[in-house]
Amino acid sequence: MFSASNYVDKVDFAFIFITAISFALLILITILMIYFVFKYNRKKGVKPVNIHGNTTLEIIWTAIPVLLVIPMFYYGWVGFVEGNNPPKDSMTVKATAQMWKWTFEYPNGVKTDTMYVPQNRPVKVDLISIDVTHAFFVPAFRIKRDVVPNRNNMVWFTSENTGSFDIACAEYCGLNHSYMYSKVVVLKESEYADWLKIQTDKMNAAAITQ
Fold this sequence. Notes:
The chain has 2 domains: 8-83, Helix Hairpins (Orthogonal Bundle), CATH 1.10.287; 91-209, Cupredoxins -  blue copper proteins (Immunoglobulin-like, Sandwich). 39% of the residues lie in helices and 26% in strands. It is built from 3 helices and 10 strands; from the N terminus they run ααββββββββββα. Strands 3-2-1-5-8 form a 5-stranded mixed beta sheet, with no helix packed on it. A 5-stranded mixed beta sheet has the order 4-10-9-6-7.
């Protein structure tokens, strides 16, 4: 089964894992709370007794959360390391953010307002802002990275699926923030090569006429 990007399965699994644990804890704590409300409600003629601690219980309620948090940290760390180490053979695209649009520049100098990339090839996106803070967010790819003025940032992905996927700015950047949308268009390798040649020819022709 194809995924929109190399992150989808891992991010979705981590999300489901954390949600399932949170839901189980919610049910357990709710049941215990209701049980204690009825068991230890105030009764006439019963003298309350102070509880001075229970070492076994304290170990249990310390150990269980630690055991639950360790795998959460593991999945987060693995995703962090992968997301910050693009393959050496990655294709580089420069994404420039400004109020309120994206501009994408390819290694040969071609510029577009929609990102075109080849299928099954790692793509490293260098993120640059020329005004305020933006965020490069592709929901279908499960990637989001801040684009900060005067600071170089990057994100990378590999898409197994051809198609068109939304790019949004996920950081409020001013009046028309909600209109700052673009697309990632994933093409087959041969189709991408044809597209890039056409765009290169147009760029060269425009340079000659100037």
